[in-house]
Amino acid sequence: MTHPLLTLEKRIEAELCGLDAHMCIYADDLRGRTVEIGADEEFESASTIKIFVLGALFAAAQEGTADLDAMLTYEKKHYVDGSGMVRALEPGAMLRAKDAAVLMIICSDNIATNMLIDYLGLDVINRFIRSIGCASTTLHRMLRSDTWGEKLGTITPRDMGHFFALLSKDELVSPEASREMKKIFRSQHYNEMLTGQLPAYFLDPEESGADPDLIFTMTKSGSMDACRNDGGLIHTPYGEYVLVIMCTDFKNKLEVRDHPAFVYGQKVSRLLFDQYLALEGRF
Questions:
Q1: How many helices (H) and strands (E) does the chain have?
Q2: In whole angstroms, how far apart are CA 177 and each of 124, 166, 167, 183, 260?
Q3: Residue 128, SS3?
Q4: What domains are there in the chain, each with its CATH number?
């Protein structure tokens, strides 16, 4: 029997005792065991809200009210600074809706996100969020360079975890749509908080020669002055588990790899990873 002071939750709290910030965690082994520390606290979403834009696009495509192959035009009203590749193009450039969605996720492209929000509409996206049972998550606006101080979206660790739990079970929109979205999330470029302390051998199979399907992640991160968030699925030979980490109230506002949120988030992620493997697929 686990010592009451050495439960997984207590060990996570011990890892976080030196963090001068506020971190909340939601993890689900998808076999009935969850780890919850502030799982229902509301956070600024930053770019994690983009997962719901992706889901809304696939849902609308299935309903016939949107088309993954629709050609979207980059207009001046879509411009915003920050992350992404489309800002290197000029207004008038055209992208398929699905291609804009890929850029929105894998390199967190802000302009591509605005193109999709404009295409779908805020109401459609927020209805999708409610339809999958995420009552505490809302997309408030498009992204604009002059409004970074305003809330982009509201989210909780539990809601983000719920999205990825549905995805893991192929229950997000449809089995076919879930599989397509998994491919996109697997190509995510920014996942340091979850993967920074996981064995590089498994996560860089091109260099190591490891089996690329043994251990990999499907995630989405988000950073603003108000938060550092990351969440998604960690795939292992024993199955997949959900992990969401959200951090706020930190002093360092710089986008740096050694940000305290990343350093401590990585510690938590590795602890959960080791526990999941040691117990062969559960927490």
A1: 11, 10
A2: 17, 11, 9, 10, 36
A3: helix
A4: 1-41+175-283 (3.30.450), 44-155 (3.40.710.10)
Report CA torsion sign: 73, 79, 85, 88. Answer: positive
Contact status, residue 46 vs residue 229, Cβ threshold 8 Å: yes
* Single-letter code of the amino acid located at 222: G
Q: Which residues of the chain fall short of a pLDDT of 50?
A: none
Tokens representing 217 are 């992640």
| Tokens linked to 84 | 């992404």
CA 42 to CA 62: how far, in whole Å? 30
Question: Read out DSSP for 41-57?
Answer: --EE-GGGGHHHHHHHH
Please give the structure tokens belonging to residue 112.
């591509």
Q: Tell me, what's the pLDDT at 257? A: 87
Residue 57: alpha-carbon gap to chain centroid: 16
Query: What is the distance between the alpha carbons of residues 101 and 68, in angstroms, rounded to a whole number?
Result: 9
User: Which residue type sits at 157?
Assistant: P
User: Whose structure tokens read 């920050």?
Assistant: 82
CA distances (Å), origin 242, targets 18, 157, 186, 196, 207: 25, 11, 14, 16, 27
Q: Are 181 and 172 in contact (CB under 8 A)?
A: yes
Model pLDDT, residue 148: 66
